[in-house]
Amino acid sequence: MDERENRRIVQRLWDAIDRADLEDAGELLHDDYVLEWPQSRERVIGRENFVAVNKNYPGRWRIEVQKLVASGDDVVTDVILSDGEHTERAVSFFQLSGGKILREVDYWPEPYDAPEWREKWVERM
Amino acid sequence: MDERENRRIVQRLWDAIDRADLEDAGELLHDDYVLEWPQSRERVIGRENFVAVNKNYPGRWRIEVQKLVASGDDVVTDVILSDGEHTERAVSFFQLSGGKILREVDYWPEPYDAPEWREKWVERM
User: Fold this and answer.
1) Could A43 and B124 be called an inter-chain contact, meaning their C-beta atoms sit closer than 8 Å?
2) pLDDT tens for each residue of B56-74
3) Which residue of chain B is at minimal alpha-carbon distance from A58?
4) Predicted ipTM?
5) B41 contacts A124? CB cut-off 8 A
6) Rounded to two decimals, what is the model's pTM?
7) Contacts 24+ apart (CB under 8 A), A90-98
């Protein structure tokens, strides 16, 4: 439960994905690694599937880590991914164990139109 | 920067929203409170607007805190909101100052269909 080390490991994961070095990213994962995408009800089990999914992803993503919060075995990141055309936002909850990433849950929030009913109390960014 | 206290304050915020006690929720906010919803590019400035937006929200939300990660002045929560008919997920980044919530950024991830291209490496939840 070394918070600083856990923070470094998750930063290294995003750096490896930014370089499209997926083998290097895979090295940071625990043998029992599980990744969940609750919005699509998908689960990626194990390092091999993680590397395969990312290698087959249609696009070459560059990564900007906006925020990284580490507490005990938990690390949370807020990341912007961009392939030159599209920009995506990922909010990820990581759980670490023994210096490896054991569990990951990713959320992918999409833009939506500001609703009219609340415009009286809200400013536009 | 009392991590345990900050964790308690954010838990109290969600408890107050769960009870629909928005005045109580407002008490936990800093005088310079700002809330951002990046997906809709909206910003709620100050306690009064926070209370007004929530009071006028069409629905009475019950809250289940799934995860709370606190580190220094940062607190992150993963929350399920439910009004009996609909269920929403909120991932929120809080920044605290002097025992009050100074900044909040909320993301609202929505369900989407699992894409076909990756079904070979993915299990369904």
Assistant:
1) yes
2) 988 889 999 999 999 999 9
3) B117
4) 0.94
5) yes
6) 0.96
7) A91/B91, A91/B107, A91/B109, A93/B67, A93/B69, A93/B78, A94/A6, A94/A10, A96/A6, A96/A9, A96/A10, A97/A30, A97/A73, A98/A30
